[in-house]
Amino acid sequence: MERRALLKYSLSGLLAAPALSSIIRDNLGARSEETSDFLSSTDNDESYWELVKKEFDFAPGLVYFNNASLGPCPKLVVDATNHYRAMLDGFPSKYMWGAWQEDKEKTRAKVAEMFSCDKEEIALTHNTTEGMNMIAASMDLKAGDEVILGNHEHTSGTACWQYWQEERHGVKLVRPELPILPESEEEILEIYKNVITPRTKVISIVHGTNTNGMILPIKKISEMAHKQGILVAVDGAQTAGTFKIDLNDLGCDFYVASAHKFMFAPKGTAVFYARKDSQKYLRALVVAKGWKDKSIRRLENYNTRNLPELLGQGMAVDYYNLIGADKRESRMRDLKAYFRGALDGDERFAFKTPAHDELSCAIQNVEVVGKKVGTVKQQLFNDFGIDCRPMSSHGLNGLRISLSVFTTKKDVDYLVDALKKV
User: Domains in the chain and their CATH numbers?
Assistant: First the structure.
């Protein structure tokens, strides 16, 4: 009964949103009766997740395990974003230049609440690449200063430091090697500790690697770095939306995440977090009227931008809350254990992702032993309609499998059967 009440409360809030048209309200209302039943089920009842999956419109025959590359939007977000787009085209100058100012701020507040931080610490940007470039371009570093970049950083999180700091200012990029299968957070922490020198100014680090889904101990690294006056910039593209993230608790200076992956927001939307006392280090990549604004909004001052997508990001947070952070994380961990358990003991497969929950969650990398990963990926798609990402760097030769809330155990069974046939 509590879950049923929560659903009705959540839907009533969404249906009352002033920007939604009567058509969208009717569509949501029609779905509310059906959805009210599944929220009364137990947390991991498959019927619940089967109904969640119905909110995503995939191409016929596609079985999607590539969320870490790009996530889909649920129907709720698609409907809302399309409605905002129609409103904008109906009266362009009104909605681009001020009529949605309050709605933009509501989206900022929703994102801040999701990440347990102040709304004055959140800028609404386009993607992780932009955010990492903003950080790298802003740093006032000198020749001989050092930036630590682990060898599993995403290309976009590395290129920005190479371009803005290494080539332009002679800053040294320190590239420690991380183990593929660490046994503990302390093992990773020690690697970073051992490469810090008096010249270290920034640690730029992924929260979760895009290669094998390994989760790094950001809180412990931040605590260690700050004791030595070192800034910590985090690429959260592969973790935002998979489990509860409290940015105040993590303690990093900057946290950047594309909202179009596990947050299911429209493409080209992102979260940029800067701790209040660290915002002084940042300069905007793009300037326009209002560039002297001292608030974090100066970092998103693009003049004309795609506001329907931005407001759709707010609806994506509403959808995130509709399921709930704890329930989403529990599901990710349950699917991870289910998938790993299905291949456990089969010598034809080798997991390239650490098993401990502290060290991995929604992304798992598995090798089909003796076969080239590119060939396996293509066969999975051609013969079974399964889309996933092949990873050949770092000696992985493994398939990156992204688990998500629209993934059912039937989907996992289908994947496992296909892998065994391959």
Answer: 103-318 (3.40.640.10), 326-421 (3.90.1150.10)
